[in-house]
Design brief:
Layout (H helix, E strand, L loop, with lengths): L1 H16 L6 H25 L3 H20 L5 H10 L6 H22 L5 H30 L3 H8 L5 H37 L1
Helix pairs in contact: 1-3, 2-3, 3-5, 5-6, 5-8, 6-8
Length: 203
């Protein structure tokens, strides 16, 4: 019931944010990712039965991406004020989402490989490599999409915000997010195992 409710909330967000997007072409291009990823998430959940927290985090990540697709990553108001306050030349919501991709999607990959019988460390490594590979291929697909669909210079500007290092920064932020998720999970897992040993000894 919990997961069905989360899916219903996601569909509601998608419908609302599909109304009058700032740049319809960019919205359509960004939603190709959503149309690909969310069905895959549902299929993986049916196969591996993610816990509720993992499923919620995955859905939340896609919803945050929908906001960027609707407002465009350059114009999203929730980060424009921060850029203006700090005197930054660009809006960093795009790179924030790439960071969250590494942070929030790392655990589902880890669960998938760990449930296959692989060791914890090998599962960590493969999950990190998957995050890095997907992040890199996303940048390649983004470049191809710009070549095919962007007929105006403004379209390219909306996507890269005229940052020549945009692709490299996006991949770096995803890797940083994945490393933080890995270290955090290792710490919490060790702490949990120590507590279990302590309780067993106490009994």
């Amino acid at each position: 019931m919990f997961k069905k409710t989360i899916v219903g909330i996601f569909v509601l967000f998608w419908l609302v944010l599909a109304i009058n997007p700032v740049h319809p072409g960019i919205w359509a291009m960004e939603n190709l990712l959503v149309a690909t990823i969310f069905p895959v998430v549902l299929w993986l959940d049916s196969k591996y039965n993610f816990n509720n927290w993992t499923f919620l985090v995955l859905t939340l990540f896609v919803i945050l991406h929908l906001f960027g697709a609707h407002f465009t990553y350059e114009k999203i108001s929730y980060f424009t004020w921060l850029s203006n306050w700090q005197g930054w030349e660009r809006n960093y919501y795009d790179q924030f989402i790439h960071f969250l991709f590494g942070l929030m999607v790392f655990m589902p990959f880890f669960e998938i490989f760990y449930h296959q019988g692989l060791s914890r460390n090998i599962s960590y490594l493969i999950a990190f490599l998957f995050i890095s590979a997907i992040s890199a291929w996303y940048e390649v697909l983004e470049w191809l999409a710009m070549v095919v669909f962007c007929r105006e210079q403004n379209c390219v500007h909306f996507i890269t915000q005229s940052d020549v290092w945009d692709a490299q920064k996006d991949m770096a932020y995803a890797a940083i997010g994945a490393i933080i998720a890995l270290l955090l999970h290792r710490y919490l897992s060790k702490a949990g195992r120590k507590n279990m040993i302590y309780q067993e000894n106490a009994d």
